[in-house]
């Protein structure tokens, strides 16, 4: 387990090392091409030091990497938002968001797919403004109103990934408790359930409900998120949220375990079609 920034450095370094090897270069030869000392290339590849987006760009140019999607992803891991203009909104919040949350948003904005198990609340990408406000207020007691406004703005801005080209592919398994827990009052919850019905009809969104009747399941250990990247599976990561921090799991055995757990949850959950009916029925009774 590692915290997000360490995961990003390690993954970025491993990918840059693989690209250098594919280009047939030693670390010393790569360093000479970009005018650095060999030790800098080594530190970047082992993830022992941070790396600037400009440095990543120099290495990618030296390795003749033309894949725009891969370049964009690696630049994002280095902290760049300048690749395609879709995520420039994040600049306005760089100084106010906790590092762990910033790192999560960065991964979310660059991932090709996201699989999530939610056991308590609606996924952030599908929350209405009123629901997001109620959840944030409950999660952080005593939050000043202006700070609350900022966090809600960020949560809503994050939802742009579902409207991007191409959009993030979201697969979510929701425990029935998510639908039954009355967050923000009856009116807020009714509108949130209607929003879920709308989202379930989007081609890039797959929603499944895990009903109480399913009994105990592997998801009782808690919610999780799996981010997958189109360019390379080596950058895939599992995120576990805790009260004061997030943990990132990157080992292949961890990824395999959580992927198998998610697949099992999808089997035990209602089908997307039945889930849509279930959510709609719950909304009608809300």
From TrEMBL:
Entry GO MF terms: DNA binding
Protein known as: Transcriptional regulator with XRE-family HTH domain
Domain HTH cro/C1-type: 16-70
Pfam families registered for this protein in UniProt: DUF5753, HTH_31
């Amino acid at each position: 387990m590692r915290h997000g920034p360490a995961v990003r450095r390690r993954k970025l370094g491993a990918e840059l090392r693989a690209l250098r090897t594919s280009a047939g270069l030693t670390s010393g030869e790569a360093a000479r091409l970009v005018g650095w000392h060999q030790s800098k290339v080594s530190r970047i590849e082992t993830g022992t030091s941070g790396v600037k987006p400009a440095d990543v760009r120099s290495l990618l140019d030296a390795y003749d990497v033309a894949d725009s999607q891969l370049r964009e992803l690696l630049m994002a891991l280095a902290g760049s938002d300048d690749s395609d203009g879709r995520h420039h909104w994040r600049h306005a919040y760089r100084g106010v968001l906790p590092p762990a949350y910033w790192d999560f948003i960065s991964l979310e904005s660059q991932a090709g797919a996201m699989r999530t198990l939610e056991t308590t609340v609606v996924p952030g990408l599908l929350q209405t403004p009123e629901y997001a406000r109620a959840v944030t207020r409950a999660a952080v007691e005593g939050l000043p109103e202006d700070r609350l406004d900022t966090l809600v703005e960020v949560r809503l801005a994050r939802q742009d990934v579902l409207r991007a080209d191409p959009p993030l592919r979201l697969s979510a398994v929701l425990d029935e408790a998510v639908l039954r827990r009355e967050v923000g009052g009856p009116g807020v919850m009714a509108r949130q359930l209607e929003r879920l019905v709308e989202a379930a009809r989007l081609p890039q969104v797959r929603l499944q409900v895990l009903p109480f009747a399913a009994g105990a399941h592997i998801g009782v250990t808690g919610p999780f998120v799996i981010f997958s990247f189109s360019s390379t599976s080596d950058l895939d990561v599992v995120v576990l949220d805790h009260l004061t921090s997030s943990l990132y799991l990157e080992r292949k055995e961890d990824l395999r375990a959580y992927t198998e757990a998610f697949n099992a949850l999808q089997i035990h959950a209602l089908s997307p079609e039945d889930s849509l009916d279930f959510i709609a029925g719950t909304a009608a009774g809300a």
